[in-house]
Specification:
Blueprint lengths: L2 E3 L5 E2 L11 E8 L2 H13 L4 E4 L5 E3 L3 E8 L4 E5 L3 E7 L4 H10 L18 H4 L2 E2 L2 E2 L4 E8 L5 E5 L20 E11 L21 H15 L7 E5 L5 E2 L1 H10 L5 E3 L5 E3 L1 H7 L6 E2 L2 E3 L6 E4 L5 H19 L8 E4 L2 E3 L1 H5 L1
Parallel strand pairs: 3-6, 4-6, 5-21
Antiparallel strand pairs: 1-3, 2-3, 7-8, 8-13, 9-10, 11-12, 11-13, 14-20, 15-17, 16-17, 18-19, 19-20, 21-22
């Protein structure tokens, strides 16, 4: 169904972003297929208006009213092709990610359980290279299908061509500005091996654990530590966990031997941003209607009709405190959306 609401600057986006930020757009368009997606985009271009494509609105911060069209990608559908070694899923970009995780488990297909309860749609997963508890999308991604919104050409990018990094991919770069993700290919090996390196998962027995048990533990951990966006507005982890070199990590650990750290394949060290923020005694710190979550310092929350600027000011304060204390400068994981589209989040809070 192709529908829109188009009273100038009167369409509220509050229910379309998990932060619950009140902002308006000129129009909101629901696109159920590629033709509708491209038509909505081209209509905005012809009117010389900005356009942005959203999925679940779970990883964005609206800084102001949006001066154009918000296009909601609702391309759905899941197909499964089974081979001797794996299940190959072709998933529409508009499918809910957690819904996909449950769907695969109900089909007896393992491999996504560590990424349960990550909010948002499947089409957003490659952009951020989403991940949790030792697993990232790049570990299971086979390809990403893209639509050029100008030419209408369809292109399939291999996982290697997606240039996945930590919360990064080619889709964040300017050359992909006129491209929409329409489907994601996921390959889940039948040679399933549990990933139990984080949190309460360490208590599970690798020899007997089932994918469903991992799913249940992951859901419990997330629900016990992270606020429900339906109750308290938030965008999940607000900052990336900083990745530093060995020398920086050693310096930190000399003064703080209890600091959690994770050795990366390239020899760099990933630190826990939440721990750094917590050590600055910022849990519960509030600016306007925004605050640092009391249970998980990595999450910034909307506690009282926060504006985007409230969250920016809070994030700037958090970044400065961590930087001045540890000489480690945090970068937002959340994408910042201004009146004309996405803007540089690091520069905004610098």
């Amino acid at each position: 169904m192709f529908s829109k609401q188009d009273d100038t600057m009167s369409v509220s986006l509050k229910s379309l972003n998990t932060f619950g930020i009140q902002a308006n757009a000129e129009q909101v368009i629901y696109a159920d297929n590629e033709h509708q997606l491209r038509t909505a985009w081209q209509d905005a271009v012809q009117k010389k208006k900005p356009a942005i494509i959203l999925g679940g609105g779970s990883n964005i911060l609206l800084l102001s009213d949006f001066s154009g069209s918000v296009i909601l990608n609702r391309l759905c559908g899941i197909t499964i092709h089974e081979t001797e070694d794996a299940w190959h899923l072709h998933v529409g970009a508009g499918e809910n990610w957690h819904g996909l995780v449950k769907y695969t488990l109900n089909k007896g297909i393992a491999g996504l359980e560590n990424m349960a309860l990550i909010p948002g749609c499947v089409g957003s997963a490659p952009i951020q290279n989403i991940g949790a508890y030792g697993c990232e999308l790049q570990n299971v991604c086979e390809y990403v299908d893209c639509l050029n919104l100008v030419s209408g050409a369809r292109k399939r990018l291999s996982a290697q061509e997606c240039q996945f990094g930590y919360r990064d991919s080619v889709f964040k770069h300017s050359e992909m500005a006129d491209t929409a993700i329409v489907a994601v290919g996921i390959s889940l090996s039948k040679d399933w091996r549990p990933i139990l390196n984080y949190g309460d998962l360490k208590q599970l027995d690798a020899e007997t654990v089932t994918p469903r048990q991992i799913f249940d533990v992951v859901c419990h951990m997330r629900r016990s530590k992270l606020p429900d966006p339906d109750i308290t507005g938030n965008a999940g982890s607000f900052f990336k966990n900083p990745v530093v070199n060995e020398q920086q990590a050693k310096l930190l650990l000399q003064h703080h031997p209890d600091a959690p750290y994770y050795l990366q394949p390239d020899g760099s060290i990933k630190l826990a941003a939440g721990w750094l923020i917590d050590r600055c005694e910022l849990k519960g710190y509030r600016y306007g209607g925004a605050a640092v979550h009391r249970k998980q310092a990595l999450v910034l929350i909307n506690v009282g009709d926060a504006t985007g600027q409230d969250v920016v000011a809070l994030a700037r304060h958090v970044r400065r405190c961590v930087g001045e204390t540890f000489n480690i400068w945090l970068e937002p994981e959340v994408r910042f959306i201004g009146s004309q589209g996405e803007i540089n989040s690091v520069e905004t809070i610098a």
